[in-house]
């Protein structure tokens, strides 16, 4: 099962539908003028043409309805065909994707397929879409919009440093120690209502933009550096501007010695 087959079936019928509607509108305007002028002979002819066009229109609509109702959306999702074709579309369109059904990551978005209700979620937003190619286009468009959004890496680095200082105090660690980025996220967004507006995917995206920026110190001159970890579950996956992946786990802030 492939939505593209249904798409190819519907396209010419959409064209026929459009043509019939245009003709019907044209005949309607002509009939109105004939009614005003009292041109009964031509009015009867155009009314007959309108009836014929309406019959064609009704036939096209019925055939479209039959084609659409015959598409088993439940089987499409449960068989894994939607997911497979979505992955194919990602490869075709150059969209990085990781994970397996029903949960995927298209950085920085989390994608979830709801098999029971045949819904697709882009983070927490439900996207009603049965066409994998169209959904991937939506993701790519959203990614491009995010990448064009204004971002101040220096300001974010300073905010991250403040969270780092709070974590150092709370965790009773020495200044300059490596702190897991996942731990700092909790200090950046300490309350659940904050995490709803600024989720971990958004945090990862900001980390990626900070990493790509190339800056290595805050506005007040404190140096910082990211570090790895052997514990993969504590790593945050990011992509650079060329789509190359990196795994960031820790960060430390320190003052440059004279």
Shape: elongated
The H/E string reads HHHHEEEEEHHEHHHEEEE
Derived structural class: alpha+beta
Distance between the termini: 67 Å
Low-pLDDT segments, ≥5 res: none
Mean pLDDT: 92
Strand content: 15-25%
Number of strands: 10
Sheet with the most strands, sense and barrel status: 5 strands, antiparallel
How many H/I helical runs?
9
Task: Give helix % range.
Answer: 55-70%
* Strand order in the sheet with the most strands: 1-2-3-4-5
Gyration radius (Cα, Å) is 28 Å
- Quaternary structure state of the chains depicted: single chain
Give structural attributes.
single chain; alpha+beta; elongated; 258 residues; three-stranded antiparallel sheet
Write a structural description.
The protein is α+β, with helices and mostly antiparallel strands. 57% of the residues lie in helices and 16% in strands. It contains 9 helices and 10 strands. Strands 1-2-3-4-5 form a 5-stranded antiparallel β-sheet, with no helix packed on it. It has a 3-stranded antiparallel β-sheet with strand order 6-10-7. A hairpin with a 2-residue loop joins β1 (98-100) and β2. α6 crosses α7 and α6 packs across α9. It is elongated and about 100 Å long. The termini are far apart. The model has no long low-confidence stretch (mean pLDDT 92).
């Amino acid at each position: 099962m492939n939505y593209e087959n249904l798409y190819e079936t519907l396209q010419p019928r959409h064209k026929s539908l459009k043509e019939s509607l245009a003709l019907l509108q044209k005949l309607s305007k002509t009939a109105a003028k004939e009614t005003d002028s009292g041109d009964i002979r031509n009015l009867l002819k155009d009314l007959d043409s309108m009836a014929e066009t309406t019959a064609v229109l009704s036939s096209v609509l019925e055939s479209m309805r039959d084609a659409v109702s015959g598409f088993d959306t439940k089987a499409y999702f449960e068989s894994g065909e939607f997911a497979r074709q979505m992955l194919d579309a990602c490869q075709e369109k150059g969209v990085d994707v990781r994970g397996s059904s029903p949960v995927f990551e298209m950085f920085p978005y989390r994608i979830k397929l709801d098999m029971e209700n045949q819904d697709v979620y882009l983070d927490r937003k439900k996207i009603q879409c049965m066409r994998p190619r169209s959904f991937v286009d939506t993701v790519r468009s959203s990614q491009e919009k995010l990448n064009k959004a204004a971002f101040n890496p220096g300001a974010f680095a300073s905010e991250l440093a403040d969270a780092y200082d709070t974590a150092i105090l709370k965790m009773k660690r020495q200044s300059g120690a490596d702190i897991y980025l996942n731990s700092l996220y909790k200090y950046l967004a300490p309350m659940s209502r904050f995490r709803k507006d600024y989720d971990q995917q958004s945090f990862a995206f900001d980390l990626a933009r900070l990493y790509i920026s190339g800056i290595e110190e805050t506005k007040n001159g404190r140096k910082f550096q990211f570090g790895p970890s052997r514990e993969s579950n504590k790593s945050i996956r990011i992509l650079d501007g060329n789509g190359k992946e990196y795994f960031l786990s820790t960060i430390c802030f320190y003052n440059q010695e004279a």
